[in-house]
Structures are given as structure tokens and as C-alpha cells.
Fold DUF4019 domain-containing protein.
Amino acid sequence: MIKNKSIYVFTILSLLILLVLSLSWGIVSKLQLDKSSRQISLETSLATFSEFNAQALVQHSHESLLAQMTPQMLGRYIQSLRRLGELVSLDSLSGTTTIALLPFNSQDKTASYKLTTQFSHAEAVIDIQLIYQQGRWQFTRYSVNSSLSAE
């Protein structure tokens, strides 16, 4: 009887330890992926709007974005945003990554951000969505919203 109780307690404790370790792994992964998705969002935006060149954006685009807009179309889109003027600053990035905290969950790792930027002629908000596949973040949406970009 005591032996069965000990086995039961040992099993429960082992399962709890595994659960805590799994959740810890998930939290650490989320923090790392959150940092890297923020970094790629900021670096790509800076590279794109410093020269109004879509090369960095195309390089990090997911096939779903490239199916909607070819690299040439993305280039023309970015060029059309020159009317916003020179990039002055990347002001704030809000949003987060979405990942499963348990390692055996096959849910896609995604990130969604709003990047507030200041150009010399207008403020703009960039809507960014990414997916983590093949060991890297890839843009699935990159849309610039400004009163001037709508004209």
C-alpha cells in the first residue's frame, strides 16, 4: 500500500516537473522569438525606407506575400511612398509574437506589429505580420498607412 502511494506521488511529481520544464522552455522561446521578430521588423523597415528600396523587404518576404505582390510590384509600392518624404524616425513598435508555450503544439509561430514612423511630410503606421518558418521570420503582410499614402 505504501509502495503504491510512493509510486503515485513520484509519478505526479515527475509529471509536474515535466510540465514546468516544458512551460519554461516555451516562455524562453517566446522571449527569443519576440526579440528576433521585433529586430527583423525594425531592421527591414529602416533598410527599406532609408533608400526607398524594397530589396530587404523582398529578401524576407514569405511566399504568400510574394504571391500577392511580385518583387517588382513591391518595389513600385515602396517607390510610391516617396511622397511621404525622408524617413525621420521609427517611433514605436507595438504588438507581439504568438506561439504555443508547450513544445509539442504544432501551431504556427506568428508576429503582428504596428510600427509608427515619422517621415518629413507625414506620419505613417506600418502594419506588419510575420510567420516563423524554416528557421527565420518572413513577412506575410507589410502595409503602410498614412493620409498621404492614400492619395
Notes: The CA atoms of residues 9 and 135 lie 40 Å apart. The helical segments are 2-51, 55-59, 63-68, 71-80. The chain has a mean pLDDT of 90.
